[in-house]
């Protein structure tokens, strides 16, 4: 029996595991499917599926999951097919995958290159010799006249401010949170009704918090402090995303169970606020949540 041709790989960003995708449907989930993560409580039993469309392109479809599927920072509509390709970032539950074409997978782990063939001519190549001499000359001049050259270079090209990947993500989280607070004020002042608030949460804030959730999940800490900051902000974003999602449901249905759920999770959210504020100098009062 011929083995199916691999058309795409799902590269797990955290685990480094690769899952081959062929023309056969692949379902990702917690308990039912082909790629399973039984310990991820944010995954639905059958969360999403990847399949080959009639146009020959790979597609992804959310199967009505509880927490949704995110592709390149966008929260997908359930049951609708979305094309995926090389470089596409997929987040389901706590799992993040990057789509990689088979040719690029081979490039990620190239075999040892064969030694270059000898030149047909027997003449010596003097290019490396001149290159070494040139480097030595530049080094000598730079060392001897560094007291003159370095100040001039510094004045012409001041070093750029270094911004860590975490700081860039945190800025997005803070901007989304500020917008969340402003939306809440508009609702309290009567500028938005229940239906308008729910629409604003689903159209704008939920996708932003979801995108931040994905970006935080792929950060790699380089220090213990950075690890703690990432962990604290992940809890904060998870809590905010849960709260605005439940809030949207409450505004749409006026069902008391959603209000009770928000009250139930409020202490955990306030604790996440306190911890993130300690590590990031967040000056947002917990009672504003």
Brief digest:
By secondary structure, the protein is of the alpha+beta class. The chain has helices at 102-108, 127-144, 146-156, 165-188, 194-217, 224-253, 256-280; strands spanning 8-12, 18-21, 26-29, 35-36, 48-52, 58-62, 69-71, 74-75, 81-83, 89-92, 95-100.
Which terms would index this structure?
single chain, 11 strands, alpha+beta, 2 domains
Order of helices and strands: EEEEEEEEEEEHHHHHHH
**How many strands, which pairing sense, and closed or not: the largest β-sheet?**
6 strands, antiparallel
Q: Strand fraction band?
A: 5-15%
Give the mean pLDDT: 77
| Low-confidence region ranges | 109-123, 152-163, 282-289
Describe the structure.
The chain is an alpha+beta fold. It has two domains: 8-107, Tumour Suppressor Smad4 (Sandwich), CATH 2.60.200.20; 165-288. It is 48% helix and 15% strand. It has seven helices and eleven strands. The protein has helices spanning 102-108, 127-144, 146-156, 165-188, 194-217, 224-253, 256-280, and strands spanning 8-12, 18-21, 26-29, 35-36, 48-52, 58-62, 69-71, 74-75, 81-83, 89-92, 95-100. It has a six-stranded antiparallel sheet. Strand 7 (69-71) and strand 8 (74-75) form a beta hairpin. Helix 4 (165-188) packs antiparallel against helix 5 (194-217) and helix 5 (194-217) runs antiparallel to helix 6 (224-253). The radius of gyration is 26 Å and the shape is globular. The N and C termini lie far apart (59 Å).
């Amino acid at each position: 029996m011929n083995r199916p041709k691999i058309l795409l790989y799902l590269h797990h960003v955290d685990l480094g595991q690769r899952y081959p995708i062929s023309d056969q449907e692949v379902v990702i989930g917690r308990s039912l499917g082909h790629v399973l993560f039984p310990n991820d409580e944010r995954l639905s039993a059958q969360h999403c599926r990847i399949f080959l469309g009639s146009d020959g392109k790979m597609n992804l479809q959310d199967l009505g999951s509880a927490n949704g599927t995110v592709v390149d920072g966008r929260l997908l509509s359930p049951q609708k097919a979305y094309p995926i390709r090389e470089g596409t970032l997929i987040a389901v539950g706590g799992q993040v995958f990057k789509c990689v074409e088979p040719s690029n997978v081979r490039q990620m782990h190239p075999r040892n290159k064969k030694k270059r063939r000898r030149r047909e001519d027997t003449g010596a190549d003097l290019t490396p010799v001149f290159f070494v001499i040139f480097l030595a000359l530049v080094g000598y001049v730079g060392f001897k006249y560094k007291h003159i050259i370095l100040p001039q270079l510094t004045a012409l090209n001041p070093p750029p401010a270094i911004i860590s990947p975490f700081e860039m993500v945190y800025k997005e989280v803070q901007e989304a949170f500020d917008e969340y607070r402003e939306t809440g004020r508009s609702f309290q002042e009567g500028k938005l009704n229940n239906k308008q608030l729910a629409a604003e949460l689903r159209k704008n804030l939920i996708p932003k918090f979801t995108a931040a959730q994905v970006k935080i999940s792929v950060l790699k800490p380089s220090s213990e402090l950075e690890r703690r900051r990432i962990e604290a902000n992940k809890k904060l974003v998870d809590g905010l995303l849960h709260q605005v999602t439940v809030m949207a449901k409450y505004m749409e249905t006026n069902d008391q169970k959603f209000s009770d759920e928000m009250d139930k999770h409020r202490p955990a959210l306030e604790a996440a606020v306190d911890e993130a504020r300690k590590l990031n100098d967040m000056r947002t009062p917990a009672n504003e949540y």
